[in-house]
Amino acid sequence: MKFLTDFFPILLFFITYKWQGIYAATIVTIAASFIQIAPFWLKNKRVDSTHLTTFVMVVIFGGATLYLQDEAFIKWKPTVINWLFAFACFASHFIGKSTLIKRVMQSGISLPDKIWIKLNAIWAVFFLLLGLLNLYVVYNFDTDTWVNFKLFGMLGMTIVFIFAQGFYLIKYIENPVNISNDNH
């Protein structure tokens, strides 16, 4: 369910763009990002830092896109967000007691510290490269291609990256699920 709520604004951006264009899609994305964080705020009086960062960037870059009528700003948003996450991963090696990825994932998996450090570095590089790839598409293709890349390309690469990470981490899971064909 979290996966769906995380990508809700991106999906609405895509649908609205195909139907009404970049400026309407930008307005819908700002509204969807607000709707994404509002229930969490009302329930917990706090918002997940990832969602808050994304919301602030959507408002800043989306607002600039609408105010200046220049789609370049909304196209830069994924790069800035990915680079902020890359910087946060990198900085967490020096700030705090554990890496960012460990803080995010440690409730679901137990790993040796050296693996957490390696995993954090891998995520930092992934975010950095994803931001660069977004800029490549922004400056070498038309807006239609960029919108398709934003949904299918970036989302697809993220899903593949997460699955690859899962295969890498499977050897470190202490209690793997035992699947058998026994009929008890």
Description of the structure:
This protein is mainly α and 184 residues long. It has one domain (2-172). 78% of the residues lie in helices and 0% in strands. It contains 7 helices and no strands. The chain has helices at 2-20, 22-44, 49-68, 72-91, 100-105, 113-140, 143-169. α1 runs antiparallel to α2 (22-44), α2 packs antiparallel against α3 and α3 (49-68) packs antiparallel against α4 (72-91). Residues 176-184 have low confidence and may be disordered.
In terms of DSSP E residues, the strand content is: under 5%
The major pleated sheet works out as: none
Rounded average pLDDT: 88
Number of helices: 7
Shape: globular
Distance between the termini: 32 Å
Runs in which pLDDT lies below 50 for 5 or more consecutive residues are: 176-184
* Protein structure class: mainly alpha
- How many domains in all? 1
Helix share, percent? over 70%
Write down the secondary-structure element order: HHHHHHH
Report the radius of gyration as a whole number of Å: 19 Å
Q: Could you tell me the number of beta strands?
A: 0
